[in-house]
Amino acid sequence: MADDADDRNGRDPAPAVSRSIRLLGLLADAGRPMTLTELASALSLAKSSTANLCLALEAGGLIERVTTGFRLGLRIAELGGAFAAQFTQVREFYSVCEASPVLSTELVQVALLDGADVLYLARYEGARAERLGAPLGSRLPAALSATGRALLMTKPDAEVRALLTDAEPFPAAAENGTRTVTALLEKLDVARERGWTLDDGEALNGIIGVAVSLEGWAPGDPQLALGVGMPAERADRAHVERVAAALQDAAAALTNPLGASSRRR
Fold first, then answer.
1. Are 192 and 153 in contact (CB under 8 A)?
2. Is 79 within a domain?
3. How many domains are contained in the chain?
4. pTM of the entire structure?
5. Gyration radius of the chain's alpha carbons
């Protein structure tokens, strides 16, 4: 009962766990090893306390010690893969791409919405795919990326506005990129009509994105997006439309035949 009361009063029921989570987040955001001194300073902890956290996380494989400090460990990658593999559509995604004459030559990614961002869960690199796009586990602004827009277009305008208003102005890579929710909603209206979204180099300069939404397979599964990234020089209108049609076919193949969207057809 006392623990329940602490939770209701806003006290942290497990401070060591919370600090460990913060430490992992620091290493993820840094993108490089961090020294014990840097970690202790960022966590506002004594070096001895920080060292104890590092020892426990290192023992669990969540971080590893290198000559320049600590970095994320292999166990983090295993956990990320296990998270994505929970979902039927991610497991089947690779074979669906391989079977598609169009997608089998492209870079195809799976993403989900997390707040105002999209998080990339899976990546298929086709025979002609260039080394581009967002790495696994990375984020892009949902308002600017094709995958993010594919997820946003399934939501009412009021929900999109509530989700993204605090993110304005959007950090578009392109000079003429979308900066406001109002401008984004206009693009989402067009996308809803045609069934797919376009990122004309707004999220990553020089890369054109095309994406479609994908309903979760089972109750409780998140809605996902399938997207292709390609260099602007080969993203002519005909090719973009071929890719969009292939993505729609892939989404249909990955949609649960007993799901709500299938029953509505």
1. yes
2. no
3. 2
4. 0.72
5. 21
137 with 189, same domain: the answer is: yes
Residues 123-158: tens digit of each pLDDT: 899 877 566 767 777 889 999 999 999 999 999 999
81 domain-assigned: no
pLDDT tens-digit readout, 55-74 = 999 999 999 999 999 999 98
Q: What pLDDT is attached to residue 152? A: 97
**Does residue 100 share a domain with residue 28?**
no
Is the domain of 34 the same as that of 147?
no
Average pLDDT over residues 228-247: 94
